[in-house]
Specification:
Oligomer: single chain
Distance between the termini: 56 Å
CATH class of one domain: Alpha Beta
Helix content: 25-40%
Largest sheet: 8 strands, mixed
CATH topology of one domain: b-12 dependent (class ii) ribonucleotide reductase, Chain A, Domain 2
Structural class: alpha/beta
CATH superfamily of one domain: b-12 dependent (class ii) ribonucleotide reductase, Chain A, Domain 2
Radius of gyration: 26 Å
Shape: globular
């Protein structure tokens, strides 16, 4: 069907002028290699992903045409996962279905859960894990001391003789694990090691020989999923996990040890060039060990040099959130905001709001939801639900009360879930064209609903899909959309802190109208699709994701957030000599060494071709789509205060999002008490607040060199843009890239990282 659409010559938009980072990001992140080594164009990615959605979702010709038009013109895009694997033979296999999802969460209650999470991470999924006592107390007691002995050299076995599946041989108290050369092989070897620690068949110490000779060497292609292998950290996975387990002999693992075991697998995966790690770990609010797990992670010696605690280094692989099953006090909210400001850690989640939203099919009125939240805080939610809804069996009741699991960026809520996302690029859509808006949100709804046809092999995930099917239609560029809709006066209102003036009340009413209309479109389309295909209707279908990478394809301000400034220098991270970076150089963009590359005195390197340089930053001058509106330059976006951001975020949370809104609210030191108090009030008064990330804002950004975003003046922007044009040798990025792909770096494959490091400087070590 997609080929028919192609023959009809549906117009395909090039990446817009306001998205100069689109080519580097697209070819680095979403473009797959053909068999001849060349990379897909945007047109080919659209063909592949649309064909996959049409076939899986059994879409009508009219639905397929709509998806084709909105994707090709960058108005409604499927998930980042689907852009990478959609329409491939790999994703058509049930064992790989999870690889089509950005968002997952797993209750950590057995050894298999650890293996499942490693499997998910190796397929590129973001992994959430709940580590509350009700789950981790189901794990067995650690009873066996494990001595790991590494055997065999990686890559020693000839290609045609390698084991694909892991084999385990047991003789008395000796175990040999032959690690298979496959994703499932790595996962089984990891899970087997964990299982041995509690296996009652053994007496005394277990000698575990881990044979790595069947594992392919670094640089070999990963067929199917894509990319290249790099098992550099695989040997350490077994020794480090054994050390963690051995320290817990005679008892069950605590939450921090569980985190470390998960994160050691994540370290191995990231080093393996498969993808960045994206993790969320949720612990109980009264679990002090979990709350302080990352405290003093960095240490300073007498000479002032910083180093990281090697035993806890892996904890950096995930975000940690404390779950409150009662409403936190004002002091707890203030402490949480203060801790996040100074360390970047300490986020809290109000579970009652999450569970209420995830049961909105039962709590259909405001009064019912309010009653439930009161009962939940009293610890009597189970009895209340049983009395009001006696048809619920015990398994469903348990599932409904456990729907506070979060994905890594916190925008999806559920229990043991997989959730598919799509994204509307509002900066590409006319605020006055309601038909265009309806088409985009309709396409986004159809895109996510199509994956509801997946049936998972793992029973816990399949049960969750059946009892609580969920999808997430997100958007990016909301701030840009509203500037175009309301003009510079809206920006001035923001500058004043979004006060409740007559003009401000009118602006908020207009915001609400847009947000509510879009939400209603999504739910109507998803429900009609589910009715037609015989699926249970999802009770929550809308969310807002961070959109750090996909937003760059159109130059959108990410998610609901304001941009960093009207004009800025955007720095994209690549490996040294990466073909994408070399193409960027010929395309006119400047390249500098990254912050990690320094000389023997600790000074940043300046020459990207210095032999000591290992990582490059491509510098791209960027302007938002409304930068040249009269008066826009007079407004300093960096001065927008934390309460104004909170107010706008809550608009989105209350009137569009039915899951949770991924949010990073930036605050200055003098705003800690104001924001902490506002969060406390929002939870206290049942306004819909669930959780949000907080980030310290520093006015002197020069303290942090070579940031991913560096605000620049209009004059500097124009100067840098002119220099790019003067250096540019070609306008055909794809052709240039193809030439470099067949050069020395052609075997490296796509970059392992699918997201830029961060949008703000890392916190100082604490």
């Amino acid at each position: 069907m997609v080929r028919e659409l192609e023959r009809k010559r549906i117009s395909s938009a090039e990446f817009p002028e306001t998205a100069p980072a689109a080519n580097p990001v697209f070819f680095r992140t979403y473009s797959r290699r053909h068999a001849d080594g060349t990379r897909e164009t945007w047109e080919k990615v659209c063909d592949r992903t649309l064909q996959g959605l049409v076939e899986l979702g059994r879409l009508t010709s009219q639905e397929a045409e709509l998806l084709a038009r909105t994707e090709r013109n960058l108005k409604a895009l499927p998930s980042g996962r689907w852009l990478w694997v959609g329409g491939t033979d790999w994703i058509s296999k049930p064992k790989n279905f999870s690889g089509g999802y950005n968002c997952t969460s797993t209750n950590l209650e057995d050894w298999k859960a650890f293996g499942l999470m490693m499997d998910l991470a190796m397929m590129g999924c973001g992994t959430g894990a709940i580590l509350e006592p009700k789950y981790i107390n189901k794990l067995p007691v650690i009873r066996n001391h494990i001595q790991v002995i590494l055997q065999g050299e990686i890559g020693a076995t000839p290609v045609n003789q390698r084991r694909e599946e892991t084999e385990v041989n047991i003789q008395d108290n000796q175990v040999t694990i032959y690690v298979g050369d496959s994703r499932q092989g790595w996962v089984k070897s990891y899970q087997t090691l964990l299982e041995l620690s509690s296996d009652e068949r053994f007496t005394g110490e277990i000698q575990v020989n881990v044979n790595l000779s069947d594992v392919r060497q670094a640089g070999e292609t990963l067929k199917g999923f894509g990319g290249v292998a790099n098992p550099i950290k695989l040997p350490e996975l077994y020794t480090k996990c054994a050390n963690i387990l051995n320290k817990a002999i005679g008892r069950q693992l605590n939450s921090v040890e569980c985190c470390l075991l998960i994160d050691q697998a994540a370290v191995c995966i990231v080093a393996g060039n498969i993808r960045r790690s994206a993790g969320m770990r949720q612990g109980a609010s009264d679990d002090t060990s979990f709350a302080d797990a990352k405290s003093n992670l960095w240490q300073q010696d007498a000479e002032g040099n910083w180093s990281i605690d090697p035993e806890r280094d892996a904890l950096r692989m995930a975000n940690h959130t404390r779950v409150f099953h009662r409403k936190p006090t004002l002091e707890e909210c203030l402490d949480a905001v203060r801790k996040q400001y100074y360390s970047g850690e300490g986020a809290i989640q109000w579970a009652g709001e999450a569970i209420a939203r995830a049961n909105c099919d039962l709590l259909a009125t405001k009064e019912l939801k309010t009653d439930f939240l009161k009962i939940y805080e009293q610890g009597k939610a189970r009895e209340w639900l049983q009395e009001k809804y006696p048809h619920l069996d015990e398994q469903e009741l348990e599932h409904r009360l456990g729907r506070f699991g979060l994905n890594p960026c916190g925008e999806i809520i559920g229990a043991n879930f997989h959730c598919n996302l799509s994204e509307i690029h509002l900066n590409q859509i006319d605020p006055d064209n309601y038909k265009e808006q309806e088409e985009a949100f309709t396409a986004g709804a159809l895109s996510v609903a199509a994956l509801l046809h997946h049936q998972f092999i793992e029973p816990r995930y399949q049960y969750s899909r059946e009892i609580d099917p969920i999808v997430g239609v997100s958007f990016t560029g909301l701030f840009d959309f509203f500037v175009h809709a309301f003009g510079v006066e809206w920006l001035r209102w923001w500058e004043q802190g979004r006060p409740k003036t007559p003009q401000g009340i009118a602006f908020k009413h207009q915001e609400q109208e847009y947000l509510t209309r879009w939400k209603d479109i999504v739910h109507r389309v998803v429900w009609e699709y589910c009715d037609r295909h015989g699926f249970k209707r999802p009770n929550r279908c809308t969310t807002v994701q961070p959109s750090g990478t996909k937003s760059l394809l159109t130059g959108a301000s990410p998610g609901w957030h304001p941009p960093k400034s009207q004009r800025f220098l955007r720095r994209i991270t690549c490996r040294k000599n990466d073909p994408v970076a070399l193409a960027c150089l010929e395309y006119g963009y400047n390249i500098v060494p990254s912050q990690s590359d320094k000389d023997e005195k600790g000074n940043l390197l300046n020459d990207p071709f210095d032999p000591r340089c290992t990582e490059w930053l491509v510098e791209i001058p960027v302007a938002v789509s409304w930068a040249d509106l009269p008066g826009a330059d007079t407004i300093d976006i960096s001065k927008f205060n934390a309460l104004a951001q909170m107010d706008f975020y809550m608009q989105v949370q209350q009137f569009y999002v039915t899951h949770n809104t991924s949010a990073t609210i930036e605050l200055r030191e003098n705003e800690i008490e104001l924001l902490g108090t506002r969060i406390y009030e929002a939870i206290r008064d049942d306004e819909g607040y669930m959780s949000a990330a907080l980030l310290a804002r520093f006015d002197d950004l020069q303290t942090f060199p070579r940031l991913p975003f560096e605000p620049i003046s209009k004059e500097r922007y124009e100067k840098l843009s002119k220099e790019v044009e003067m250096r540019r040798k070609t306008d055909d990025f794809h052709t240039v890239l193809s030439r470099y792909d067949f050069g020395e770096m052609s075997e490296a494959g796509p970059a392992g990282c699918d997201s830029d490091k961060c949008m703000m400087p890392e916190q100082s070590p604490n």
